[in-house]
Amino acid sequence: MNARTETQLLEAAAALAAQPTHTHHLSNAHLDALEEETIFILREVAASFERPALLFSGGKDSLVMLKCAEKAFGVGRLPYPLLMIDTGHNFVEVTDFRDSRAQELQAELIVRSVEDSMARGTVRLSHPGESRNVHQSVTLLEAIEEFRFDALIGGARRDEEKARAKERIFSHRDSFGQWQPKAQRPELWTLFNTRLAPGEHFRVFPISNWTELDVWQYIEREQIGLPPIYYTHKREVVDRRGLLVPVTDLTPPKDGETVQIRDVRFRTVGDITCTCPVESLAATPGDIVIETLAADVSERGATRMDDKTSDASMEKRKKDGYF
Predict the structure, then answer these.
(1) Do 7 and 57 fall within a single domain?
(2) C-alpha to C-alpha distance for 153 and 303, rounded to whole angstroms
(3) How far is CA 93 from CA 57, 127, 247, in A?
(4) pLDDT tens-digit map of 108-136
């Protein structure tokens, strides 16, 4: 950890400790408002669509959303299945946690794999080592067609990335599954236009208005369990263009790179081939709240190799059907 980062963390911790006690009540009121909005949207989806599904990866954002769904409907009463598009290159800690959480809620879990799309020939890699992350769009659209889903609930937030900041909460997709940012519908006074033509569907983002800090404060307040890789642990990494790339069979070190063992955690979790941890000693949600207060780079900007290619990469992928 460099001196500048350590100084930022100390300043953030001091500022948090210096807050008057009534600030915590204000913070809870803010989280209550976000939770209430999310529950309202989750119920609105259940009331407005015939075949919705909740995208559930086992990551922190989808776990927060699932906690709100549990409050909205109760254990064993979720009105829609959970859906995951599996690249086959996910961290086992996350997929194991995904399965156990779905079982706890007595929820139907549907998993569709990019590898199945590869077997069908609908996904073709340019080379064996290519990341499968971008190809999830094909498998997702195939799942939509298979189950005739008319709404997919996702955990994306507007603060994550510039293209996601353009999203409506109810984001319309055309009959090709594509997103047209200039053709989105107005959402004044939380009134949502959910009309669909045949073959169209919506992507719905109930935690659009949350920030990374909100998510971690809510995780702390609600004591939400997470996969252990969200907290500090020792891992072999290489420093590659400012990112700490985990050393795995899928992401081996390149010639000339030095493997180091560092104390790290993951701010966001995705495909192994494009997700990097950050250096951290944060072992609890409270520790991560303090780190997040000092962060000056978004979680995707600090951890995702596939978002480094160009500013327009995410927007292009979303137009092609990405989450």
Answers:
(1) no
(2) 24
(3) 11, 27, 16
(4) 999 999 999 999 999 998 887 788 888 99
Tell me how far apart the terminal alpha carbons of the chain are, to the nearest angstrom.
33
**Are residue 188 and residue 236 in the same domain, yes or no?**
no
Question: Which residues are bridge partners to 279 per DSSP?
Answer: 264
Looking at the fold, whether 120 and 137 belong to one and the same domain comes out as yes
Quick: pLDDT tens for 177-228.
788 777 788 877 778 888 888 889 999 999 999 999 999 999 999 999 999 9
Per residue, the 3-state secondary structure of 104-138, as one string, reads HCCCCEEEEEHHHHHHHCCCCCCCCCCCCHHHHHH
Kindly write down the DSSP assignment for every residue of 219-262, as one continuous string.
HHHHT----GGGS-EEEEEEEETTEEEE--SSSPPPTTPPPEEE
Looking at the fold, whether 197 and 53 belong to one and the same domain comes out as yes
- Take residue 149 and report the two structure tokens written for it: 């889903």
Which residues lie below 8 Å from residue 151, measured CB to CB, with a gap of 6+?
A: 45, 48, 49, 51, 52, 53, 194, 201, 202, 203, 204
CA distance 54 to 109: 10
The angle at the Cα of 117, spanning 267 to 54, to the nearest 5 degrees, equals 50
Give yes or no for residue 239 having a pLDDT over 80.
yes
Let me know whether 262 and 230 are in one domain: yes
Helix (H) / strand (E) element for 11: namely helix 3-18
Q: What is the mean pLDDT of residues 138-159?
A: 94
**Cα 199-203-209 angle, rounded to 5 deg:** 160
Q: What angle do CA 158, 168, 67 make, to 5 degrees?
A: 65
What range does the domain containing 99 cover? 24-212+311-319
